[in-house]
Amino acid sequence: MQVKQTELGGVVVLTPQRHGDARGFFSESWNKRRLAEAGIEAEFVQDNHSLSAKVGTVRGLHFQSPPHAQGKLVRCGRGCLFDVAVDIRKGSPTFGRWVGVELSFENGKQLYIPEGFLHGFATRAPDTEIIYKCTDYYAPECDGAVRFDDPEIGIDWGVDAGAAVLSEKDAKAPLLKDFDSPFVWEGAA
Ligand SMILES: Cc1cn([C@H]2C[C@H](O)[C@@H](COP(=O)(O)OP(=O)(O)O[C@H]3O[C@H](C)C(=O)[C@H](O)[C@H]3O)O2)c(=O)[nH]c1=O
User: What biological-process terms (Gene Ontology) are attached (predicted)?
Assistant: First the structure.
């Protein structure tokens, strides 16, 4: 498995090995021991799977606040998407900074996003399916969001923000400056 650190500490791009043969390929999409070897000690308790029919669908930027904060291991089961993590840990030297990576069925890449980060994605192909493991259960009372097109964050989604396919919740999400993050950077004094 290839492991590539990003400029946001803890956010890691993983590419599991694919064993190709005349039938197609086989890949271990998740292996706890290999993640631990990559420095990721995560206990996953829930798998999520969603389908987004239209190109330019944006889901995010979401988080769950403590005590049900979620780390996520994200991959693309079909199609192609641009997956983004944003650091919202107060005191972090990279607070408000984002990283993005194209995940597709073709490239087999995965993104690990620890607790304390917003997560969102924009689809780049029709009928795109995202599949991701979470380190805590769904807790709607802890559900939170920040606007995907917040100019202070400045994510280049590669889609026309005005034409993005959004949920009502995402269309009404607050800006980062109007939001009090429940996360504190562990490196803070
Ligand atoms: C997240 C979640 C949702 N639901 C139900 C609640 C709604 O009836 C329906 C759609 O939920 P929502 O509109 O929040 O789904 P997304 O917009 O895809 O939200 C997700 O998108 C971003 C990318 C994430 O990382 C989060 O996992 C999550 O916030 O599924 C559940 O039953 N369990 C769950 O874990």
Answer: dTDP-rhamnose biosynthetic process; polysaccharide biosynthetic process
The per-residue b/e assignment along 115-129, b for 16 or more CB within 10 angstroms, e otherwise, is bbbbbbbbbbbeebb
37 occurs within a structural domain: yes
Indicate whether 146 belongs to any domain: yes
- pTM (2 decimals)? 0.97
**Number of domains forming the structure of the chain:** 1
Domain range for 110:
2-183
- pLDDT per position as a tens digit, 60-101: 999 999 999 999 999 999 999 999 999 999 999 999 999 999
Residue list, ligand 1 pocket, CB within 6 Å: 48, 50, 59-60, 62, 72, 119-121, 138, 167
Q: Is residue 188 part of a domain?
A: no
Q: CA-to-CA distance for 13 and 46, rounded, in angstroms?
A: 20
**44: domain CATH number?**
2.60.120.10
ipTM for the assembly? 0.98
62 is catalytic: yes
**CA distance linking residue 111 with residue 99, whole number of Å:** 10
